[in-house]
Amino acid sequence: MFKENDKGLDAALELAIQGKTEGRDILLSLNQNDPRVRFNLGWYYIRDGRLYDGHKNLEYGRMINVFGGSKKGIPPMYDSSSLKDKILLFNGEGGFGDEIINIRFAKNFYDHGAKVIVGCSKELFPLFEKLEYIHALIDRDVCNRSYHHYWVPAMSAPMHLKLEYWNLSNAPYLNMFNKRWVPKNNAKFKVGLKWAGNPKFEHQQHRRFPIEKMLDLTKIKGATYYSLQRDEDLVDNLPCIDMRYEMKTWKDTAEIIASMDLVISSCTSIAHLSAAMGKETWVISPILPYYIWALPIDTSPWYKNVKLYRQTKYGNWDDPFERIEKDLRGRTSAISADSVK
Predict the structure, then answer these.
(1) Where are the domains of the chain?
(2) 204 pLDDT exceeds 60?
(3) Which residues contact 112 (CB under 8 A, 6 or more apart)?
(4) First and final CA of the chain: distance in angstroms?
(5) pLDDT tens profile 122-165
(6) What value does the CA radius of gyration of the chain take, rounded to a whole number of Å?
(7) Given 3.40.1170.60, 3.40.50.2000, 3.40.50.1220, 1.10.287.90, which CATH number is that of 190-333?
């Protein structure tokens, strides 16, 4: 079905990977009944600042199973009815980062009067259990068995809430974790580093950069550096303090991040956790960014404490790391100057 669109979709993707927007014109010329076309157009609408229209088109991705986690056959889907005294099942989906991004929207439904039950990955229970607007947490693999009046798949929440960028909250929402003792805890400026995410992510190959570029940042004096890399792309004999063995749970990880002054990360779940905690977070984004970074600015309406360092040429990461190095030298120099006064 829709085979006639295949070449156009491939061409549009190739243009997007190269950072060119002409892919939008190709998509608009294709059969609009194809859910792949509508899903890809959703990314462009979000990039253009049309958050609601973007999510309406991203929703077509459900027809081709691009979202992971939500179970079918959980009637009824929320339909903008009154939620007063109703139980709403908020069903997490996607990877850990997606669940962390979207848990914020459970509060919107709570504010609309709902008793919110959240289905999420069991590993994330320690992050979400203290959120006062959540009535209960259930393993997302079995949450469809819980009693509820309505349900919402988490990645569709902005569409169901009819959100635009102007009323999208960017305030911290996981900022309840205490600082954990870390080696050299008396360091004046502590920087957490995370250079790689889930290798199963569909476009992982586009967000990967040479690890050496991240580790070279540790040569900048005036800061103490900590590796927040735990499960993959591990490096022995690091030029920084390795925290992998301290990060046994997500609560451990949150407490370690709370101890940092700055987190520098590729587009990973660590970046989203750090930003959701209100920690200053610098995110290294590929030229074809994830949808929440699609708006072409260096900050983010999703998190007020994020700064984006975008790749500008496909296959070349020199530019974003040169800017990170410049900004990091500026920060460490300023801290050193203050300590002398």
Answers:
(1) 7-64, 87-167, 190-333
(2) no
(3) 83, 84
(4) 70
(5) 999 999 999 999 999 999 988 888 899 999 999 999 999 999 99
(6) 21
(7) 3.40.50.2000
Q: What is the pLDDT of residue 65?
A: 84
| Architecture of the structural domain at 87-167 | 3-Layer(aba) Sandwich (3.40)
Residue-wise pLDDT for 207-232, tens only, equals 688 999 999 999 999 999 999 999 88
Residue at token pair 């290294």? 284
- The answer to whether domain 87-167 and domain 190-333 are alike in fold is yes
Q: Is the pLDDT of residue 43 over 90?
A: yes
Q: Residue 27's pLDDT is what? A: 95
Of residues 92, 60, 91, the one with CA closest to residue 78: 91
